[in-house]
Design goal:
The protein is built from two helices and 13 strands. It has helices at residues 36-49, 100-112, and strands spanning 19-22, 25-28, 66-70, 74-78, 81-85, 122-128, 134-137, 149-155, 158-162, 172-176, 181-184, 193-195, 210-216. The strands form three sheets. The chain has a seven-stranded antiparallel beta sheet, with helices on one face. It has a four-stranded antiparallel beta sheet with strand order 7-12-9-10, with no helix packed on it. The longest helix is centred in the N-terminal third of the chain and has 14 residues, at 36-49. The structure holds N-(carboxycarbonyl)-S-(naphthalen-2-ylmethyl)-L-cysteine and fe (iii) ion. Residues 137, 139, 193 line the site of fe (iii) ion (FE).
Length: 219
Amino acid sequence: MITTDLFADAALPLKPRDERLCEGAVVLRAFALEHDAALLQAIHDITAQAPFRHLLTPGGLRMSVAMTNAGALGWVSDRRGYRYARRDPQSGEPWPSMPAVFLQLATAAAARAGFADFMPDACLVNRYEVGTRLSLHQDRDEHDYAHPIVSVSLGVPAVFLFGGLQRTDLTQHVPLAHGDVVVWGGPARQHYHGVAPIKLAHHPLLGDIRINLTFRRAG
Ligand code: MD3
Ligand code: FE
């Protein structure tokens, strides 16, 4: 049980290297870095209960990103569509609970970006290997888009593609490194986004993979 507040500095203003990509979207560089080992241990524990798997899109294609979830709700996809579910369809069990270090990191990052009462009920854990990409999409499966999304990048770097409200809008290319946290709220919440194909690289803690955590209030 963690009783000390690991993120007591959440109320501090943004640091000089932090970036506002547009209204509502803030990159917090290296915000998760000092907690990387605890985050990795928690991911290890989650995947022991709910292993990474490649979901099928409603069209029947195997997603190249491997996924699992923690929290009361988990994002799933199959021939029936995209949705949030209380149980892992593979085991029939509830998803592993949200680790305390996840919750503290996500709420502290949201607070830093101006969302003081963010309380996620879902954490989607995405695993990327070399060549894995995530094509441009909007996140539309949550009930209330007023809640921000917090994303945490771990492992090898990625180029994040951040578009606009229309699929054809120009995309900003945002490099995201191990430990970077991004808060996507306000108008940014409904922007198209994706991840360019991961390049071969090595990270001392994770090897040749990238893991991204996305925290959401889904229900
Ligand atoms: C911007 N994941 O799981 S996280 C996803 O790196 C997803 O795994 C990517 O997009 C990843 O849906 C990107 C950053 C992110 C997440 C949600 C957003 C950016 C967003 C929603 C709106 C705008
Ligand atoms: Fe997304």
